[in-house]
Amino acid sequence: MNEEEASYLRYREEDRSLGEIASDLLDNATTLIRQEVELAKVEAKESATKAGKGVGMLAGAGVAGLLALIALTLTAWWGMAVLIGSSDDPALGWGGLIVTIIWLVIAGILAAVGKGELNKVRGLKQTQETVKKIPNAATGHEEKNR
């Protein structure tokens, strides 16, 4: 017995009208669509949260990079002042260089962490998986989805 005959026999065993069957099918399809939309909302919210973290870290890296540029500018300024002017206070240039290096390390760490957070965003995986199962469920072949 093929699938069509088995399906027809199941239909014949039920004592329902075609209208009742169509109504049940419509109700099931509506429920399925609602569930898929809800799942998509939950997954989208998760993805947005992860993306927000990554963007925040990258923004922090941008601020740190700007501060590094300012510090580097001050370092170059003070270094040139010591080389050209007097050498009575050479620590000012070195102090600026140390601050610049610290800011560059912070910027590198923030950029790496932010990039890692953005790499964790994977989209709507569960929704994609369950949407693939709809055709089998709609045709009464849910066993193929297992």
Automatic annotation (TrEMBL):
Output the InterPro entries linked to this UniProt entry.
Answer: Phage_holin_3_6 (IPR009937)
Question: Could you tell me the superkingdom of the organism this chain comes from?
Answer: Bacteria
Q: Which UniProt keywords apply?
A: Membrane, Transmembrane, Transmembrane helix
Annotated membrane-spanning segments are: 55-79, 91-113
Q: What is this protein called?
A: Holin-X, holin superfamily III
Can you name the source organism? Tessaracoccus flavus
